[in-house]
Amino acid sequence: MNELEIIEKIRSTFEVKDYPLTDDVAYLSNKWAYKVDMLVKSTDVPEGMSGYQLGRKSVVAVLSDLSTKGVTAKFMMLSFAFPEGINNEYIIEILKGIKEMTNKYKITLIGGDVNKANDLIIDCIIIGKYKRKVLRSGARVGDKVYVVGDFGLTTIGLDYLINKKEINNEKLKFFALKAVYEPDPQVNFNIDAINSGYITASMDSSDGLAYTLNEIAEQSKVKIIVNNYPMSEEIKKLISLEGRDPLKDALYGGEEYQMVFTVNPKKESFLQRLAKKHNVKIYNIGTVVKGKGVYLSNGDKVEKKGWVFTF
Amino acid sequence: MNELEIIEKIRSTFEVKDYPLTDDVAYLSNKWAYKVDMLVKSTDVPEGMSGYQLGRKSVVAVLSDLSTKGVTAKFMMLSFAFPEGINNEYIIEILKGIKEMTNKYKITLIGGDVNKANDLIIDCIIIGKYKRKVLRSGARVGDKVYVVGDFGLTTIGLDYLINKKEINNEKLKFFALKAVYEPDPQVNFNIDAINSGYITASMDSSDGLAYTLNEIAEQSKVKIIVNNYPMSEEIKKLISLEGRDPLKDALYGGEEYQMVFTVNPKKESFLQRLAKKHNVKIYNIGTVVKGKGVYLSNGDKVEKKGWVFTF
């Protein structure tokens, strides 16, 4: 079985009516919500990532999902497994990275576990409060599709680190590596945006923008047309100068930890003001229409490709 | 750093006043409590344990801790990491073992994560409700010390599996392997006992009885005298016939997943009736006196030894 088949097996074994296992977070009826995400060094940590960055990322991944669902983080539990021979400084750096995030977002550690394994594992569990639910399935015909932040950078950064594909422009290289090593979800903006009530559907982008858009389209039973670049003019230009296709890099990347959302066009200006207030960049990249699937405005299909583990 | 030093580092980095990281579970003020426990195949799973038993154990470890603290399990999250090459049947067996426990105790899975790693990991998070808190620190002079179930069997079973130490008696071998492969915390008894209000201190025994008693004595600032065997006459005899010391096996084992508790002597008979009602064996193994440390009635010191990972 691959990852998706295992998840299906888990769903068919355990899922009950009121607690769907399909969305990003688990909302309980008492306004508490839960999310867990496991970071595994051998699969989730690219070359050159420091202990500090690794610790930071283990929390960021969960905060991104939660904030995309309007959940304010309150409590955390951490399960660690460390391998034989790990050095003390590295562990201390990891804790520093975690601590920066718990300080920044006022999260209290309430429990955890320490183990030994043949890999380095951080399983981060966060418990938070929400005021309003938002699902992947709420996008309506006529809604605008938005992303938070610049897409495409992680694709280039990971291509450099994993496939040794050189980045010629130093500025782009800096942005791309920063995006990979220190992803920065716009937690406070995301939560305020959800709480405004104007977001109709939302999802964390970390499985890739193409995957995320397809998932929203499928769950909402609508078609999405992508007609704009999810990045600044500057980054678009820098990526083009590398001889790459900026839109392809933006669609088929992943690991951005940013929010993708849909909004009623009457409320666009409100959200743009909110983004300005939070000093956050948001990009309108498309519209929701009748039909199914995700397409570029030239008619090309955007495939539901994402990273899937095989065992 | 070893395991305990890492835990100390985590405490000094993250601990805040109202949320001590020293006890078995995290009690929040709203009557919800939380516990996470990570099972790692390379360190926690003895030879010959089936996928079903492994899945079962990943839940049992958490239920034991929670029930020992009076917490009724309600919701669960599961983070898995599977290694390359794992076969489908094995995964399905693991899920069956987990399912048996979620069915038996009516626990709803609300979320999780599936990953790939160089080890097999199940991180089990359970969220439950409690009516009354009980800590490690509540034992009073004059209290009686009790354990639930027979101790010593896991020591013999693990000695057989890890150190290849033969077990001559077939009945004892059956009991010992069953204790290792299918630990069976008395969840319902434990919770009813805590809710009675008569338990003054309690702790899960899985780090070893000697460690557990020392921990209760330390946190409660009392001395514990062990004056009785934590096992049935039959098991005591079977262990003796192997040429082993039953008390030593009982004290310096671990992985029993049973409750160790202290109770006011006036309430002993109530708890004995409660145990009978639940068809559970409990043994009075000692008393709480003034002083510190844990001692046998002959004056021998019971050392605070337990399993600690080194890295």
What is this structure's SSE topology?
The structure is a homodimer of 311-residue chains.
Chain A: H1 3-14, E1 26-27, E2 32-40, H2 41-44, H3 51-68, E3 71-82, H4 88-104, E4 108-116, E5 121-130, E6 144-148, H5 153-163, H6 170-181, H7 187-195, E7 199-204, H8 209-220, E8 223-226, H9 233-241, H10 246-251, E9 259-263, H11 268-277, E10 282-289, E11 293-296
Parallel strand pairs in A: 3-4, 8-11
Antiparallel strand pairs in A: 1-2, 2-5, 3-5, 6-9, 6-10, 7-9, 8-10
**Biggest interface, residues from each chain:** A-B, 61 and 61 residues
Tell me the major beta sheet of chain A: 6 strands, mixed
Name the helicity range of chain A.
25-40%
Global outline of chain A? globular
Total helices of chain A: the number is 11
Low-confidence stretches of chain A: none
* SSE-based structural type of chain A: alpha+beta
* Level-2 CATH architecture of the largest domain in chain A: Alpha-Beta Complex
Strand adjacency order, main sheet of chain A: 7-9-6-10-8-11
How many structural domains of chain A?
Answer: 2
Can you say what the CATH homologous superfamily of the largest domain in chain A is?
PurM-like C-terminal domain
Task: Classify the beta-strand content of chain A into a percent band.
Answer: 15-25%
Overall mean pLDDT score of chain A? 95
H-E order of chain A: HEEHHEHEEEHHHEHEHHEHEE
Task: Please give a handful of descriptors for the protein shown.
311 residues, alpha+beta, 60s Ribosomal Protein L30, Chain: A, Phosphoribosyl-aminoimidazole Synthetase, Chain A, domain 2, 6-stranded mixed sheet, 5-stranded mixed sheet, 39% helix
